[in-house]
């Protein structure tokens, strides 16, 4: 398990939605995550708010096999620059996973599922991506 202090700005984080789906976003530090909301609003939210209306109560961070958190140097900047903007949200063609991947790589690819996100992140970082739980209690 990772401590929150071990998660750097620019990390990809996820939580579960009713044990069927995942919701992803970009951790930007200070307990804040940038997400694409279902309304199309890109916003910065607290970790607890990231869990709102979702069944998951575990935050997971993308890591390599050694347990090191994977980050993209410009990822947090890309995410922050989009706060309070709107995108045409679509559950299949323009969702949180596509937003997250675009923040990491700087390119918008046709990401439709969490599986697609994991695949693209593995290609981007050239390593298998695993997910480690983050202890959100400071």
Descriptive account of the structure:
The protein is α+β, with helices and mostly antiparallel strands. The protein has a single domain, classed as Alpha-Beta Complex (endopeptidase fold (from Nostoc punctiforme)). Helices cover 25% and strands 28% of the residues. It is built from four helices and seven strands, in the order βββββαβαααβ. The protein has helices spanning 47-51, 75-81, 96-105, 114-125, and strands spanning 2-3, 11-17, 21-29, 32-36, 42-46, 59-63, 130-135. It has a seven-stranded mixed β-sheet with strand order 1-7-6-2-3-4-5. β4 (32-36) and β5 form a beta hairpin. The model has no long low-confidence stretch (mean pLDDT 92).
Task: Name the beta content range.
Answer: 25-35%
Number of strands: 7
- Rg, Cα atoms, Å: 13 Å
CATH class: Alpha Beta
SSE string, helices as H and strands as E:
EEEEEHEHHHE
Q: Structurally, how many domains make up the residues? A: 1
Task: Output the structural class.
Answer: alpha+beta
CATH topology: endopeptidase fold (from Nostoc punctiforme)
Compute the separation of the termini in Å.
Answer: 13 Å
Biggest pleated-sheet summary: 7 strands, mixed
């Amino acid at each position: 398990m990772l401590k929150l202090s071990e998660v750097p700005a620019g990390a990809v984080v996820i939580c579960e939605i009713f044990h069927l789906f995942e919701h992803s976003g970009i951790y930007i530090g200070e307990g804040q995550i940038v997400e694409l909301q279902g309304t199309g609003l890109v916003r910065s939210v607290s970790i607890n708010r990231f869990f709102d209306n979702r069944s998951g109560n575990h935050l997971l961070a993308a890591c390599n096999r050694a347990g090191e958190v994977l980050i993209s140097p410009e990822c947090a900047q890309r995410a922050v620059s989009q706060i309070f903007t709107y995108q045409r949200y679509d559950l299949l063609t323009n969702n949180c996973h596509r937003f997250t991947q675009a923040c990491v790589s700087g390119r918008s690819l046709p990401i439709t599922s969490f599986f697609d996100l994991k695949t693209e992140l593995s290609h981007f970082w050239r390593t298998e991506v695993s997910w480690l739980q983050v202890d959100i209690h400071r």
